[in-house]
Specification:
Strand order of the largest sheet: 3-2-1-4-5-6-7
Shape: elongated
Helix content: 40-55%
CATH architecture of the largest domain: 3-Layer(aba) Sandwich
Number of helices: 15
Structural class: alpha/beta
Number of domains: 2
Oligomer: single chain
Radius of gyration: 21 Å
CATH superfamily of the largest domain: Glycogen Phosphorylase B
Length: 361
């Protein structure tokens, strides 16, 4: 198959990893895979040594004629059978380019997060009638889109997955170096949060409730001092640390430090960082919201808390940090989820079947 993936984003974030894993994985299986994205973006760089053919594209705005011409030229030059658009600007452009230039290819949109750009009947009509199918990355996300007016039969759920070989055993020297960098002692319990800025303030608010457990909070992925004022107000400034913005591969090194990992977010379509933590035998606590509930089964492979329930978050962390049997149970099941349930091979199998069926329609 000849497939063109489009995204105007491609920054350092979980969705970029997912696109890269999918594109390169399909290319390794013998398909002709092209990725159109702005040159110089993180996605462009990480695909440099992949089996994917990169096409430099610009997406100055929704409905840009420049973008539509670039899509037209790629489809005609490479005989593209399927366009899979990943973000808002490219979703608009893919529909309009096919219609304007009468391109003989299928158009698929992938939705990875809580919908911000679907609302009224007119826009719903545009997306449904302009695409052959919409892929959503969790059943929870599908339910939200159905509530917003997208027909259930027009959507297909395909979970994200990660390659097993991505999770190398933590390097003891690297972990020791990181521990020294932040001044963590062997007795400190480090609660980590690997995420862009979302609802992490809840973690800071939970810290006073865990004062007796020698908990240190480490944010990976946000600017140092983001919650400085709040931490000072709560008297926990000396227990909140920041790694700053780090690359995806470097972020994995931090799991060797963590006693627990938290994802406090209501916008996740899936929650790839939860799978990462599970792969490194780090028990997880996450918001009971959106696609997170497709990944975390409360009490089985992680713990859930209601958004805004700081006490519930603190209780979940306390259970993980003090109950050895629960911790062992969550880690064992979490590892099974990471290495058997949410694997890249399963994701590739599902996309291959989906795309092949689509080309036969």
């Amino acid at each position: 198959m000849r497939i063109l993936f489009l995204t105007y984003q491609g920054h350092v974030e979980g969705s970029t990893n997912s696109i890269a894993f999918l594109a390169d994985g399909l290319a390794r299986r013998g398909h002709d895979i092209f990725v159109g994205c702005p040159k110089g973006r993180h996605l462009w760089r990480i695909l440099e040594r992949s089996h994917v053919k990169r096409l430099p594209m610009v997406f100055p705005r929704k409905g840009s004629m420049t973008t539509m011409r670039l899509i037209r030229d790629a489809v005609r030059a490479y005989g593209i059978q399927i366009i899979n658009a990943q973000a808002s600007h490219d979703r608009y452009a893919s529909i309009l380019a096919r219609r304007l230039y009468r391109l003989r290819c299928k158009v698929v949109h992938t939705r990875r997060q809580f919908p911000r750009s679907i609302g009224g009947p007119l826009q719903n009509w545009f997306y449904v009638h302009g695409t052959d199918r919409i892929v959503v990355i969790s059943h929870s996300l599908k339910r939200i889109f159905v509530e917003r007016g997208i027909p259930s039969k027009h959507m297909t759920v395909i979970h994200n997955g990660t390659p097993r070989d991505r999770y190398k055993p933590p390097d003891p020297e690297v972990v020791t170096s990181l521990r020294a960098r932040f001044g963590f002692s062997p007795e400190d319990r480090v609660v980590g949060c690997v995420s862009r800025l979302k609802n992490q303030d809840q973690l800071v608010r939970a810290m006073p409730l865990l004062e007796d457990l020698r908990v240190k909070l480490l944010f990976v992925g946000i600017e140092p001092g983001t919650f400085g004022e709040l931490a000072r107000e709560l008297g926990v400034e000396d227990r909140v640390y920041y790694a700053g913005l780090v690359g995806n591969r470097e972020a994995l090194d931090y799991y060797g430090l963590f006693s627990a990992s938290v994802l406090a977010s209501t916008m996740e379509g899936f929650g790839l960082v939860l799978v990462e933590a599970m792969a490194y035998d780090v028990p997880v606590v996450a918001t009971k919201a959106q696609g997170i509930v497709d990944v975390v089964r409360d009490g089985e492979n992680g713990l859930l808390f209601e958004d805004g329930d700081v006490g519930g978050l603190a209780r979940g962390l306390r259970r993980i940090l003090t109950d050895t049997d629960l911790r062992r149970h969550l880690c064992l099941n979490g590892r099974t989820s990471a290495f058997e349930e949410f694997t890249l091979e399963k994701t590739l199998d599902n996309y291959e079947s989906f795309f092949k069926e689509l080309t036969r329609e």
